[in-house]
Each structure stands twice: as structure tokens, then as C-alpha cells.
Amino acid sequence: MTTQASPGPVAVITGASSGIGEATARELTAAGYRVALLARRTGRLDALAAELGDGALPIQADVTRRDDLEAAAGRVKSELGGTDVLVNNAGVMLLGAFGPDRHSDYRNMVDVNLLGAITATEVFLDQLRDGGGDLVNMSSVAGRTARPGDAVYAATKWGLIGFSECMRQELLPDVRVTVVEPGYVATDLPTHITDDEARRSTEELYSHVTATPGDVARVIAFVLAQPRHLSVNEVVVRPSDQRH
Question: Which of 160, 168, 171, 229 suits a disulfide with 139, CB 3.0-4.6 Å?
């Protein structure tokens, strides 16, 4: 008599339509995970889900809208059985000199990068606790080293590191918490910058970046593959030629 293998664990990934989120979805699918793909851009989500196969569930969701996240959590529970891993990856990087004319950029970064991760964690927390799970928060080296033009972006990433450490202590041993802090990674983040000078300089910098979203995705897969008695709490990953 042949026994049927149980379905793989479930990873929920925010910001899954591009960059590190998309690469993480591919990497975890290859590792046997079923993936819930959360993002605002449905066309890209649907194409990725079709590529990954039956274990991929595309869900249109904006992390700044609690109702969207609650609806997503309900679908993950009913259609996939619950959440084993939450990867808080959604983020925006709107760099530029600090000033009163950029208030909407600042609010956007706080809402997406910090409050979005906090709200997603809150909404999915009960599912993560069922049987033990993993919370992975995507910060940045900007959460360790602040520079001119990074003020509010750095503030959100510093905040996410602090949030992650508090969650690590509050949730152990039921949920392992990891914060990943990438340096320069070749993604489309610079294209979203509204300040023309900052966008041009950042795009020029990123045109020489060697690290890829897949590199970071492999780090995430490595963290999740560790035995349950071991928790990798903080990972800083840079291109080998990045100084700061």
C-alpha cells in the first residue's frame, strides 16, 4: 500500500510580484513549499502563480490595508490550511534630501515598510503559532548605517530591526523570528524614487550591483531549513564589493 505524501508547508510572501519577493517564491517552491503570493499587481502575481504551479495562490493585497490582509489570511487558512512562514518583504525606497515637500513619500514608506509588516504579523500571528512557524522580516543595511538622503527610509528599517528583536523574545519558542538586512540588490526599487536627482544617482549606482534577488532568496531558504532547535535571528548580506 502506497501512502500519499502530506502537502508541503505554506509560506506567505508580501511584495511577491517582483524582486526579492518573487525570487523567494521561486526558491521556496523549489524547496517544497506552497506559497501564497501577496501584492497589489495582479497581472504579475497571476503570471508567477501560473509558472509555479498548483501550490501557488495569488492574492491581491495591499499591506497598508488591514482588510486586505485579513481577507488574505482567511483565504490562506481555507485554501492552503494555514501559514507556516510569513515573509514580510513588501517595501518602498523613496530616497532624497529631507524636506517638507516630500511628506507623502515619508508617509508611504512608514505605512508600507514598517506598519505594513507590523499589521501583517498581527493578522497572521495566530496561524504562525499553530504548530510553530517562522517570521522573516526584510530590513536593510540602511537599518544599520544611515546616510544623507536615507532619513525616513532608514528610520523604517531601523524600526523593523527593533520590532523583529522584540518579536523574537515575545514569541519564542513557538515562532522563530529572523530579520534579513540586504545591501545593494539589483531590483526595481530605484525606479519608484520620486526625487529626480536621487533616482538618477541611485539607478546609476544600482546599474553596477552584482547581488541578485535570488541571492537573498537562497539566504531565506537557508534560514528556514535549519532544525527547529536552532534560530537564525539576524542576517546581513551584501555584495562582496560593498563597503558600507
Answer: 160
